[in-house]
């Protein structure tokens, strides 16, 4: 099984969230002081992981992830693309993502400059 970065961040959020709501269990198992440290640390890390995941899982990254999937031949982008997606569609390092036509490529290049 191959997991994307987004999925790894999701798994981390699940684990940290479970720790955050397990105060009673941790108190019974480890004592109040240790439980407080575990839950507080989990909450702090959960906020960081969630924030980073939000930043790195934008539209452009989703398109890169889809293009990297086995079985995907090409992701075609039209002239209505936002700047971030336009930059992916015109990136030479993304051979499976591109404009729907040469005419649209010119539009996407100009759109990407506004990113």
Question: What's the structural blueprint in terms of helices and strands?
Answer:
Blueprint (H helix, E strand, L loop, with lengths): L4 H16 L2 H8 L1 H25 L2 H10 L6 E3 L5 H7 L7 E3 L2 H12 L2
Parallel strand pairs: 1-2
Helix pairs in contact: 1-3, 2-3, 4-5, 5-6
Overall helicity: 55-70%
Count every beta strand, where a strand is a DSSP E run of 2 or more residues: 2
Main beta sheet strand tally, sense and closure = 2 strands, parallel
Overall pLDDT, averaged?
92
Assign the structural class, choosing from mainly alpha, mainly beta, alpha/beta, alpha+beta, or little secondary structure: mainly alpha
The total of helices stands at: 6
Radius of gyration: 21 Å
Give the percentage of residues in beta strands.
5-15%
The sequence of SSEs as H and E is HHHHEHEH
Q: Which strand order does the major sheet show?
A: 1-2
Low-confidence stretches: none
Count of spatially separate domains: 2
Ends distance? 34 Å
Describe this entry's structure for a reader.
- By secondary structure, this protein is mainly α.
- The chain has 2 domains: 5-56; 59-113, no CATH class.
- The chain has helices at residues 5-20, 23-30, 32-56, 59-68, 83-89, 102-113, and strands at residues 75-77, 97-99.
- It has a two-stranded parallel ribbon.
- α1 packs antiparallel against α3 (32-56), α2 crosses α3 and α4 (59-68) packs parallel to α5.
- The radius of gyration is 21 Å and the shape is elongated.
